[in-house]
Design brief:
Oligomer: heterodimer
Shape of chain B: flat
Number of helices of chain B: 3
Distance between the termini of chain A: 87 Å
Structural class of chain A: mainly alpha
Distance between the termini of chain B: 60 Å
Number of domains of chain B: 2
Number of strands of chain A: 0
Number of domains of chain A: 1
CATH topology of chain A: Four Helix Bundle (Hemerythrin (Met), subunit A)
Radius of gyration of chain B: 19 Å
Largest sheet of chain A: none
Shape of chain A: elongated
Largest sheet of chain B: none
Strand content of chain A: under 5%
Order of helices and strands of chain A: HHHHHHHH
Number of helices of chain A: 8
Chain lengths: ~250, ~100
């Protein structure tokens, strides 16, 4: 058996055991190379680990952009087929509720950014939990308004299907508009519900004091998700609620 | 090591800009400007999204790689829109083809 080239194979390859608690199996292994308890062995340092997580989240968000993008494309195709019909249909959405929800979501984005900042600056757990709870409260308020709006659509027969009633000129375009309205705001609301679940977990972790200036990746990455959902609404609000607004609200 | 910590004041300024943008969109939408309505609402929406991405989502202080990945998402979205519409808007231009 030929000798290994010492330059390319300087020694046995270091393989850390695939267990959570290395110290229990190899006592003193971390005395040789001390590192942050949250640092995983395949990363050089905490900065690289944080960066890799944020990048991974962005790759996921790109798939989310394309996910919502399909619905935005459908909107574009059907609206360009009958722009006036879409404006007529849009006029029956309540701009006030839509605007309130836009402001609510922007506020929640601010509290989310401050929650991440609190973790980044090693703020006490109760401060971190406070900002996360505020974000969750605003998210819940958004969904509450959505319930009021959906109820209104059901009572006014604006839900596409056999019971759809339209008193305007463009029934088919209006039904398509409301199909897209429910699909887009519904998918968005589903993302909000998932976001609330994520925030509940993050809030619990923050309450247990798991985040500080060295390790706050879960808050950062969940924040990216929350802000993304806010951005989707930033586009949904004008495209659904405002295109027929200048005809005068109903 | 805590990444870049943005000053609180910056977050409040971005928040105010987002609120101003929202008020502006609603105010402009109430006036009939023809096709300009769409242009204004989408420009304001893009500006708001950009503010959220750059500051709230920390892309302003992230690596080039993150920047490229984030931008690629919107670039592919543009491809999706433009090629789809290139089909729908040109149907029937040639006699005898699908409309």
């Amino acid at each position: 058996m030929p000798d290994f080239d010492a330059e390319h194979f300087p020694g046995p390859i270091h393989r850390p055991p695939l267990v959570a608690n290395v110290d229990a199996i190899q006592p003193g292994v971390h005395a040789e190379h001390p590192h942050h308890p949250k640092l995983q062995h395949h990363f050089d340092d905490m900065a690289q680990q944080t960066e890799a997580s944020a990048l991974g989240m962005w790759v996921f968000l790109v798939t989310e952009i394309m996910f919502f993008g399909g619905l935005f494309t459908a909107y574009l195709v059907y609206r360009s087929a009958n722009p006036t019909g879409f404006q007529e249909a849009s006029n029956h959405l309540d701009v006030i509720w839509g605007a309130i929800n836009t402001v609510v979501l922007i506020c929640s984005s601010l509290t989310m950014a401050l929650a991440v900042r609190a973790a980044q600056t090693s703020a006490p757990p109760k401060v971190q939990v406070g900002w996360i709870a505020a974000t969750m409260a605003l998210g819940a308020a958004f969904l509450g308004v959505k319930v009021v709006e959906y109820t209104d659509k059901f009572t006014h027969n604006l839900v596409p299907g056999p019971d759809f009633v339209w008193e305007g000129q463009y029934t088919a375009a209006a039904e398509m508009f409301y199909s897209l309205y429910f699909a887009m705001t519904g998918l968005h609301a589903l993302h909000m519900v998932i976001g609330l679940g994520i925030m509940a977990v993050i809030g619990f972790m923050a309450w247990r004091g798991q985040f500080d200036e060295d390790y706050y990746t879960p808050v950062e990455v969940s924040g990216l998700y929350w802000h993304f959902v806010d951005i989707v609404w930033i586009f949904l609000f004008p495209l659904l609620y405002l295109i027929g607004y200048h005809y005068g609200a109903h | 090591m805590a990444g870049h910590v943005a000053p609180k004041g910056l977050y409040y300024i971005v928040f105010l800009a987002l609120i101003v943008g929202t008020v502006l969109t609603v105010a402009v939408a109430a006036v009939d400007l023809g096709p300009l309505n769409n242009i204004v609402m989408l420009t304001v929406a893009c500006a708001k999204a950009l503010l959220v991405i750059l500051f709230f989502m920390h892309v302003r202080w992230s690596t080039r790689l993150t920047w490229v990945v984030a931008a690629s998402g919107f670039f592919w979205l543009l491809i999706l829109f433009s090629i789809t519409m290139a089909d729908y808007m040109t149907r029937g231009w040639v006699q005898g083809t699908l409309r």
